[in-house]
Write a structure and sequence with these properties.
Length: about 160
């Protein structure tokens, strides 16, 4: 089954002005916890380029900072330093394409309905009672027109090999 983004409009289809609360609500609502667990949601900002950049290009199941091209770490757990390396398994919705190799397919590069390809990104992590990450939801919001998309819908986090 192909991953196809379904776009809706937050903030009445207007450009982003301040924190994208509509995006945070969307990812919080998609995350599901185990009994005793909790959900933490945040708007992604690049800490590596030092500017607090909050705009990302998206390709092959990952979000890359527009300023420095460093990935957020959705697919491998780098986004959550206290966690272990992970891989993702789809829950009810297939994961975005993550095809290997240097080339990009058109389906690897999502665009909002107006054709924009740079996004604000929000991430919701579902934690178990013991503090382990169990699931992740990722949402995209076009800062130009406010279009919203649930990019990763409650994917299950599976521990990977530690190095």
């Amino acid at each position: 089954m192909d991953h196809e983004a379904v776009w809706t409009y937050g903030a009445a289809g207007k450009p982003a002005a301040g924190p994208p609360e509509d995006l945070l609500r969307m990812v919080r609502g998609a995350a599901r916890t185990e009994p005793g667990g909790r959900v933490e949601a945040l708007v992604a900002e690049c800490v590596l380029c030092g500017t607090g950049a909050d705009e990302f290009e998206v390709a092959k199941g990952e979000c890359f900072c527009v300023g420095c091209c460093i990935p957020v770490g959705i697919t491998d757990g780098d986004m959550c330093p206290a966690a272990y390396p992970w891989t993702l398994e789809p829950s009810d919705v297939p994961l975005p394409p993550a095809s290997p190799g240097p080339g990009f397919e058109p389906s690897d590069l999502p665009c909002c309905p107006a054709g924009h390809a740079v996004f604000q990104v929000a991430v919701a992590l579902a934690f178990a009672e013991d503090g382990a990450v169990r699931g992740i939801s990722v949402g995209l919001r076009c800062p130009e027109d406010g279009a919203l998309c649930l990019y990763v819908d409650n994917a299950r986090v599976v521990p990977g090999a530690t190095t």
